[in-house]
Amino acid sequence: QVQVVESGGGLVPAGGSLRLSCSASGRAFSMYNMAWYRQAPGKQREFVATITWNKRQTLYADSVKGRFTISRDNATDTVYLQMNNLKPEDTAIYYCNVQLYWGQGTQVTDSS
Questions:
Q1: Hey, which of 19, 40, 55, 66 has its CA 20 to 30 A from 86?
Q2: How many CA atoms lie within 13 A of 35 on its CB side?
Q3: Among 56, 27, 22, which Cα is nearest to 38's?
Q4: pLDDT, tens only, 41-80
Q5: What CA–CA distance (Å, rounded) separates 62 from 47?
Q6: C-beta neighbour count of 68 within 10 angstroms
């Protein structure tokens, strides 16, 4: 059974940092690109960042470029999202995606 589980969300003031984690299990996901998306209240889900299976390429939404960093550990099928200099507009539920699979999301909220 495939499981995608995000963790690491929480309350953080503007300018703060968080690191999200996403663990995928049930299949060998090390050969697939992995990505983060987010959905803010009242808005559609939007792309945040993606990383290729071999870690050679990453891509970011303009709104997070220079502040967020995506990385992965293929030995554990885990993808990370380091978020620095957080802004109130980063408040959202963050979702991990690999192929057709999605996690339940982890909430990131501005506490300012």
A1: 55
A2: 18
A3: 22
A4: 999 999 999 999 999 999 999 999 999 999 999 999 999 9
A5: 10
A6: 22
